[in-house]
Fold these 2 entries.
Entry 1:
Amino acid sequence: MSKVRRIAIAVVAVAVGVVALLLVAEQRQGRDAKPLPGTALRVLGPQRAILVGTAVRAAEMRDNRAYRQLIAQQFSSLTPENEMKWALVEPERGTFEFKFGDYIVEQAEKAGQSVRGHTLIFDSQLPGWIAELDSREVRQATEQYIRRVVGHWAGRIAVWDVVNEPLTALGELKRTPFPSKLGRGHIATAFRVAHRADPKARLHINEAGAEAIGPKSDRLYELVRELRAQGVPIDGVGFQVHTNLGGIPPTFVDNLRRFAALGVEIAITEADVALKLPPSAADLRAQARVYGDIVRSCRAVKACRQLTVWGFTDGRSWISELQPGNGAATILDEDLRPKPAFGAMQRALSP
Ligand code: XIL
């Protein structure tokens, strides 16, 4: 065989190999999403002045085409489910990992979506090295972290959950080693540092289980009132609204209204409705009513401008992953088909 011929064969073999690899990669991306019925949530939301968002997972967006397509079609705002948490962003002190968050921000920008940054100060999902620092070092590391991370995405994150779940069930400031090591006033400092790092980002405090008027939301209300009175740059309050067939408390709308009266914007940030597995058809209908109630609660309060679900498919939801016996908490099933809850959200958002 001539040398030229051998080279030609080698080139063809390499080309075939590359094409095969590309095909395999393409296959692994899976099928296109089946179109969902009716008008997309991201189209309906603005008619009610509500930005409809979802929590997303970067790796899943990268590897699963249908998942990625539905995010682009249905939602106007993305919240990284874990990718912007401290343990993931600064696993070793001084070593930053931005690529997963970057990917989500880039995808959002391509699809004309905004990003909700989640989250800066949180007592969960912290890097291990924090535990070894004394109080002064923790304060320093926290401020550096906020400056670095908010600065990294400055101008590209519409809203930051600056402080996440600061209160206990009774409304006391949490006294775990972190963030209590930061000392009193750490919440105000976090907001001030974040504001300097990205003056355009709107800064929220985000809380779990503060939907009803009661001890916890009373203390949250006092905290937000004080921060505003001190001139701390806090723009809004996020209510997570992780719930179940117990539904949303009857005082939810009044609660939102009293916060709104402080001059802050309101967001529903992590809505989901957990069911006992396996759910019956009646459970799915009851779940749809709860999703509808959540949308209507936001609609009832002018300051409620954003409603984010904590994942949109039962195949990718923290409830099924972390709460044994519970699941089916989202609006699409594991195969990305609409559940009654999806239609209920559409109806509740329709003019
Ligand atoms: C959850 C994620 O969904 C899980 O994937 C992770 O393992 C644990 O954290 N409140 C919050 C979110 O503010 O950050 C939590 O997210 C769910 C409860």
Entry 2:
Amino acid sequence: MADKIFLEIVTPEKKVLSETVDIVVAPGEMGEFGVLPGHIPFLAKLKVGELKYRVGGAMQHVAIMGGYAEVLNNQVTILATAAEAAVDIDLIRAKAARERAERRLADSRDKFEFVRAQAALQRALARMRIAERQ
Ligand code: ATP
């Protein structure tokens, strides 16, 4: 049995990551889950949050804006709406997005606007959390 996992993260725009790793921890809609080598086949919906993976001793962090994770034959494929590795996150942009979302939340006139602003706020906060931890 292989003792590594091949992790691939793709979005509609680009391939964000393609790497051999030791463990993946993903933000599942039903809760965070970890994948080690030899994991059974598995499909999960992801929420906005943080995906972590370890290569050797170093834990790496990726912002995931929701999507799906497929685990099959020691490969984890993440199909994300959007995703950025910690180093690629523009913190100033994320802070501006948070301020915009907070204003929209306060000014929202219906449930639809409120829910959209709430989702934008979640994306901004996830990006800020990951970028600020670096
Ligand atoms: P914004 O309002 O700043 O565009 P958003 O949450 O609406 O934020 P998304 O729709 O999730 O943005 O993403 C659109 C594209 O912009 C994606 O390619 C995503 O990776 C990228 N992106 C969004 N915010 C950032 C950021 N702070 N740093 C780096 N890339 C970002």
